[in-house]
C-alpha cells in the first residue's frame, strides 16, 4: 500500500486559519515556542523523577510506599513524555534547536528512541491520522480493532473489557520490541525511516544499554529480582496506560473519522487540515491542572493543526480555531468532561468488536 494523497483545497480554510494564528502571535509579540513557565514545569518533573528514582533504588522504602512511588514514577515518565519530550521532538519546546534536541532525547533515557519516535509520530501519525494501513497508532492487531476498515476477529467482541490491560502493555512493548523492529526493518509500517547516520546508531544502542543498566541491572543489584520485577511492572504498566489513554481519547472515538483513500486515485477526501479536525477530538480542556500535567495534549486538535507550536499556547489557539471552524461550518470535536471522552472510546471499541 502506497501512502495516500490529500485532495487539493477547495476552500481557503487552511490559509485563513494560518493567517489568523499568525496574526495572534504577531499581535501578542510572543514566540511560538515554550517560555519560562514551561521550563520550570519541565525542571520540576525531571528533578522529581530523579529524586524518586534514587529513593526507590538506593533507599528502598517499605513495600507499600515503594509501590506508591512506582506508580508516581510511572506517571512522571508519562508526564515528562507529554511535556518535555513531545514538544522537544516537534521542535517547539524552545527557540534554540539544541535545547529541543536535548528535550527530545529525554525519551532515550526512559528507554525509547527519539529517532524512531519522530518517524512514527511526527511523520506518519501527524500526516495520515486515523488512516488504517498507514497510521501505525491504529495497529494494535490482533488484540484490538481500532478502525472500521480493520479485520474483525472473535476476540474483539470482548475488547471493550480488556483494552485497559492491552494499553498498559504499551510501554514495555514499545521499549523492548517495536523500537528494535523499526531498527531492523528500517520502516514504520509501510513508511521507510530516514537513513540513520553513525551517530544515530551509536545513540540507539548506547541509550538502550543505559536504560537496561539504570532500570534493570542496578535495581536488581540493589533490591533483588523479585522486588525489582514487581516494582518495574507496576511502574511500566502504569506509564503505558497513561501514555496510551491520552492519545486514544483524542482519536479513537465514536465521533472521529477513519478516512479511507479512494481506490483508484489513492486520494483522501479532505485537505490536510480538515482531515486533522475530522480525525481528532479535544477532551476536558476546562481543567487547567489536567492540561498542566498532560502537556496540553487534551487540546489535541490544536496540536495536530500546529505541531510546531508549544502546548502552552493551545488554550489561546483553541478560541481562534473554534471561531474559524464555525465560520467555515466545520465540526470541532470536543468532550467537555474526561469521563465523556472515555465513555465514547469505550463505546467505539464495543461497536467495532460486536457490530
TrEMBL record:
The keyword Transmembrane helix applies. GO terms for molecular function: oxidoreductase activity, acting on paired donors, with oxidation of a pair of donors resulting in the reduction of molecular oxygen to two molecules of water. The keyword Transmembrane applies. Residues 62-334 form the Fatty acid desaturase domain. Keywords: Membrane, Transmembrane, Transmembrane helix. The chain crosses the membrane at residues 38-58, 64-85, 97-117, 160-177, 202-222, 228-247. GO terms for biological process: lipid biosynthetic process. One of its GO terms (cellular component) is membrane. This is Fatty acid desaturase. It comes from Cyclobacterium marinum (strain ATCC 25205 / DSM 745 / LMG 13164 / NCIMB 1802) (Flectobacillus marinus).
